[in-house]
Every structure is written in structure tokens, then in C-alpha cells.
Write a structure and sequence with these properties.
By secondary structure, the chain is an alpha+beta fold. It has 2 domains: about 5-85 and about 225-250, Phosphorylase Kinase, domain 1 (2-Layer Sandwich), CATH 3.30.200.20; about 85-205, D-amino Acid Aminotransferase, Chain A, domain 1, CATH 3.30.470. It has 6 helices and 15 strands. The protein has helices spanning about 45-65, 100-105, 135-140, 145-165, 215-220, 225-235, and strands spanning about 5-10, 15, 25-30, 30-35, 40-45, 70-75, 80, 85, 90-95, 110-120, 130, 170-185, 190-195, 200-205, 250. The strands form 3 sheets. Strands 8, 9, 10, 11, 12, 13 and 14 form a 7-stranded antiparallel beta sheet that branches. The protein has a 5-stranded antiparallel beta sheet with strand order 1-2-3-7-6, with helices on one face. A 3-stranded antiparallel beta sheet has the order 4-5-15, with no helix packed on it. The protein starts with 5 loop residues before the first strand and ends with a strand.
Length: about 250
């Protein structure tokens, strides 16, 4: 399709004007970033895998009646999505202690949590995406109390689905990040799941070996990022056992 006007470019995706009013084209880049882009590489093929995995997850969420911005995949790197007003929050659902939770509270990584925990982070790169409470969110008008109820309900439903999906293919969902947006339909406003859900935004561990199959391989200089993402895609039935996403592997960005 012909490229249209660029609306926004983030760390891992570009949004273009869509073919119809109220739509956008979401393009998945090969950029791998961490620590607010202080660490940055190009991993050839990562965007293709994230596009396919996120398409699969969002299609299933739509089929289950969980509202999302996703309409359909257009090609190997692009999706057609509904235009939404992104709420400036990262919603993190944790099932197992890992990452910043382990560091903050001194809990060993891999410790199952007594129950799933939902955390909120204010999306602001300059501030390092600080953790915030529901009180901050409603006080500063980032979302109102009813929207917060909707966001938390969506987070719980998405977590239940993802836990079951990955458990069925031998993967433990340690935690994941999601974003939400306001979808305006005539006089109605709905809160929907937006952005992407992929190994970029989830911690995924093999159930048997605890091998990491997510972006922690990049954050922690473990190597094998593309192979890990391919393994997730294969287990979900999105790649044949002998299929490879072509690419030259990690290329350092100066």
C-alpha cells in the first residue's frame, strides 16, 4: 500500500494515516530499546515477529469480546488499527516477581506472587516512566475513576487469557505491559486495549527450564533475542518448525 502521512514515531513502531477516517496503519520496526533508549540495537526480523504475535493475541482478544484497537494485519510489518486517544499510562500486570519489582522489594526473581498485582507507570521518557498510584492518575486527570475501573477490568481479563494461552504452549507469563486508549464512537467513548502485546512487552519463561523468551535477553545482554521470539511464534503455531525470519541478527546502532 502507498505510504501515507506519518502521525507518530515511537521506539518500536510508526503510526501512519490510515486508508479510512478513524484508522491508522501501525508499522513494527526492528529497533530493540531498553532503559528509555539508552540501549538501542536493530534486530532484523524482530518487527515481523512482533507484528504476527501481536496480531494473533489481539485477534483472540477481539473474538473473546475484549475491546481492542486492532482491525487486521495488512502485511508482514503493518496492521490496520482504530485511531484512539492513548491514555498516558503503562499498565503492568505481574504474576511472578521479576525485574523492577524484585529490585524494589528485595524479592527473589521467580517467586510466585500471592495474587496478580496491577501497577501503573506514567508514560514520560524524560522522567523515566515513574510508578504512580490511582490517586495520582485521577488527581492529574490522566483517567477518571470510571476509566480506571475499566482499565483494571481489562487488565485482569487480558491477564487471564494470556496466562492460559502461554501455559498451553509451555510458557509461564511472568508479567506484561499493556496500554489503553479512548475509542470515540459517535457520542460514546470506550476504553480499549491498544499498542501491542508481544515478547517486547511480556516476560515469558519456559515452564521447564525458566529460559527467558522475551526482551530481557536484550536488556541483560544474553543474546539470542530473535531466536527467542521465533520460539514463541513457533509455539503459538505462527511459524513452521523449519521456518526462519530472515535477518542478519543484531546490528549495533551508533
Amino acid at each position: 500500500m502507498n505510504r501515507r502521512r506519518r502521525i507518530y514515531e515511537g521506539k518500536a513502531k510508526i503510526l501512519y494515516e490510515g486508508p479510512e477516517p478513524g484508522t491508522l496503519v501501525q508499522h513494527f520496526k526492528d529497533d530493540a530499546t531498553a532503559f528509555n533508549k539508552k540501549k538501542h540495537q536493530i534486530v532484523d526480523g524482530k518487527g515481523v515477529l512482533n507484528n504476527r504475535i501481536s496480531e494473533y493475541i489481539f485477534s483472540n482478544l477481539n473474538d473473546m469480546g475484549i475491546p481492542t484497537h486492532f482491525i487486521r494485519r495488512l502485511n508482514m510489518r503493518e496492521q490496520l488499527i482504530r485511531e484512539v486517544e492513548i491514555i498516558p499510562l503503562e499498565v503492568v500486570v505481574r504474576n511472578v516477581a521479576a525485574g523492577s519489582l524484585s529490585e524494589r522489594l528485595g524479592i527473589d526473581e521467580g517467586t510466585p506472587l500471592p495474587r496478580s498485582i496491577i501497577e501503573f507507570y506514567y508514560k514520560n521518557d524524560e522522567l523515566g516512566d515513574p510508578m504512580v498510584s490511582e490517586e495520582h492518575i485521577t488527581a492529574f486527570g490522566w483517567a477518571n475513576p470510571q476509566e480506571m475501573d475499566d482499565i483494571m477490568s481489562l487488565a485482569i481479563r487480558v491477564n487471564d487469557f494470556l496466562c492460559g494461552l502461554f501455559l498451553g504452549v509451555g510458557i509461564r507469563l511472568v508479567d506484561f505491559k499493556m496500554e489503553c486508549g479512548r475509542l470515540y464512537e459517535n457520542d460514546m467513548v470506550r476504553i480499549v486495549v491498544a499498542d501491542e502485546i508481544s515478547p517486547d512487552s511480556c516476560r515469558l519463561w519456559d515452564m521447564t527450564s525458566n529460559e527467558k523468551l522475551d526482551k530481557d535477553r536484550f536488556r541483560r545482554d544474553m543474546g539470542g533475542l530473535l531466536e527467542a521470539y521465533q520460539e514463541v511464534a513457533r509455539r503459538l503455531g505462527l511459524l513452521n518448525s523449519n521456518e526462519r525470519v530472515t535477518g542478519t541478527g543484531p546490528v549495533l546502532v551508533q
